[in-house]
Design goal:
The protein is mainly α. The protein is built from 7 helices and no strands.
């Protein structure tokens, strides 16, 4: 069975405007189907938990819904229907700013850059979204292209 490297960036939002939500859907859906590459958590404690917390969605409730294999737009519709969900423009803006503004620790940055053959000399944007993209692309290349 294929083990898929998720390539939707945390810097992408769907119609609700919530950054990282499309990536969370992709990773959680792949994990539920047994198709997620083992280097990735289906639902992790970083951006995944930040996104669920910002929306006011319980992780177990989210996992149970993901197990029904919803499309992305079905997920957004479900989120809109959840009691207590916080979809105000201000809340989404605050969440998106937290996603965009997150900076990995020095050890994580260095590990990603080393694995990708890039110097840790300040020439690469230090934002976690950008570093995570580079890491995903490198993992994808190693698994699917380089072989």
């Amino acid at each position: 069975m294929a083990q898929i490297v998720p390539l939707i960036s945390s810097g992408i939002a769907g119609p609700l405007g919530v950054l990282h939500l499309p990536r969370l859907w992709q990773k959680a859906s792949l994990a539920a189907a047994g198709k997620l590459h083992p280097d990735y958590p289906g639902i992790g404690c970083g951006y995944d938990q930040m996104t669920l917390d910002a929306l006011g969605i319980n992780i177990d409730t989210f996992k149970a819904f993901i197990d029904t294999k919803p499309s992305y737009t079905q997920l957004e519709s479900w989120i809109r229907s959840q009691p207590g969900v916080n979809l105000t423009k201000g809340n989404i803006y605050k969440h998106n700013a937290a996603i965009r503004g997150y900076i990995h620790g020095d050890d994580v940055r260095k590990g990603i850059l080393d694995a990708c053959g890039l110097p840790d000399d300040g020439s690469v944007n230090p934002g976690a979204v950008d570093l995570n993209n580079i890491d995903d692309w490198n993992t994808f290349w190693n698994v699917e292209i380089k072989g």
